[in-house]
Design a protein that fits this description.
Structural class: mainly alpha
Number of helices: 5
Radius of gyration: 27 Å
Shape: elongated
Distance between the termini: 54 Å
Largest sheet: none
Order of helices and strands: HHHHH
């Protein structure tokens, strides 16, 4: 129910802010703000896309935990999308998410709500004893190039 109210409230807040702030600062500064914030959103999105793969590969090569940088990138993508949406409220949220302390707070808030449940068993791998032998191509049955009869061609 609260998601429905949020979906309904955001456009109403945006319209109210457009009317109020647009009336206070004028039409052209309002349009300029919308265009500048969209350009900033595109810039952030491009930067995350370009640097994301390279830094993820470097984190994996250096055996660092990639989850925190991935969480930062996900929040940066969310900030870019909020900046792309026209409106003062979504722009304010997007600008806030660009700040590293705010991102750290959001990640900490989300991390508190996530519970990791182990799958059971021990952390050691089970060892299965067995014999093996190498099969040569000459030992395999001859290959049939005809359909099996179960399919129609």
């Amino acid at each position: 129910m609260w998601i429905f109210l949020l979906i309904l409230a955001v456009p109403l807040v945006e319209i109210a802010l457009f009317v109020t702030l647009g009336g206070a600062i004028g039409l052209w500064p309002t349009l300029a703000w919308v265009l500048v914030s969209a350009a900033l959103g595109i810039f952030v999105l491009k930067r995350v896309a370009v640097s994301g793969a390279v830094s993820l590969r470097q984190d994996m090569r250096e055996m660092r935990d990639p989850l925190s940088p991935l969480a930062h990138r996900a929040i940066l993508v969310m900030a870019a999308v909020l900046l792309l949406l026209p409106g003062f409220f979504t722009d304010a949220l997007g600008l806030l998410l660009l700040l590293k302390p705010v991102r750290l707070g959001v990640i900490a808030l989300i991390a508190r709500r996530i519970r990791v449940v182990p799958m059971g068993g021990t952390a050691t791998a089970d060892v299965i004893e067995g014999d093996w032998s190498e099969v040569k191509d000459s030992d395999l049955p001859p290959r049939r190039d005809q359909p099996s009869g179960w399919t129609r061609h």
